[in-house]
Amino acid sequence: EKGRMTDAESAAFVERIRYGSLDGAAMQEASGLDFVIEAVSEDLGTKRAVFESLMAAGLPEASVLASNTSSISITKLSSGLPRPERFIGMHFMNPVPVMP
Known about the structure:
The protein has helices at 7-15, 24-27, 44-56, 74-78; strands spanning 35-38, 64-68, 87-90.
């Protein structure tokens, strides 16, 4: 079908996704990440602490850092980061609508 992945493509894609928290084990992978989505509570200080931890853990300069925010300005979130041009906002609706 148009725009659909095969089961094998889908499985390979899922294998490349990593989930983690700010513990030592997960942060050891930061230097190998291309795209990070932060999804912590809607608190500027909490979100900034996550970004700072990722930078300190060696997140590559070419990585895209995304925030799942619905109420905090993306400009405000990215200010003070070493590369705000690599920062984006994403908002996931709940529940995600299924498109045919």
